[in-house]
Amino acid sequence: MTHAHITTWVVALILFVVAIALQAKGNEKTKMVHMMLRLFYVLIIATGAWILYTMSSFPALYIVKVVVGLWVIGAMEMILIRTAKGKNTNVLWLQFITAFVVALYLGFKLPFGFSFFS
Ligand code: HEM
């Protein structure tokens, strides 16, 4: 299931980059890619929740992992929406990068699946 979880956020990341690129060109397909990205938010959350469901108990750090994971999703959504409105997104990009790095670190540190950092 961790492989499914990784697949969903990698696909989401690609869709996010594509949406940003299309949006910059004012391409009308941006909306479609954004909708697909939203579907992948749900899949990321569902696979993450499934991992939690399969565990009998989990350390408090898992709560932090979930919150940071949701923060990454929130930042992607806000960046796309605010860019569409022509508003400044510098702070959001900073949040996105920080949250993404922390999510990767925690994900790979926590005992389930790959554990590169422990
Ligand atoms: C885009 C946002 C996210 C990223 C980049 C991300 C990244 C990761 C990574 C790299 C892993 C490690 C997989 C492995 O070791 O095989 C992981 C595991 C996990 N993720 Fe996420 N995740 C995100 C969102 C979420 C969300 C929203 C949830 C909660 C619903 C969640 C819950 C979990 C859980 C419970 C694990 C297992 C932790 C462990 O390795 O023991 N993740 N995630």
TrEMBL record:
Supply the alphabetized keyword list. Cell membrane, Membrane, Transmembrane, Transmembrane helix
Pfam families, sorted: DUF1516
Keyword flag Transmembrane: yes
Q: How does it sit in the membrane?
A: Multi-pass membrane protein
Q: Principal place where this protein is found?
A: membrane
Membrane spanning residue stretches: 6-24, 36-53, 59-79, 91-108
One GO cellular component term noted in the UniProt record for this chain: plasma membrane
Database matches in InterPro entries: UPF0344
Per UniProt, subcellular location reads as:
Cell membrane
Among NCBIfam families, the record links this protein to: PRK13673.1-3
Family assignment from sequence similarity: Belongs to the UPF0344 family.
What's the name of the protein? UPF0344 protein SAMN05216169_10164
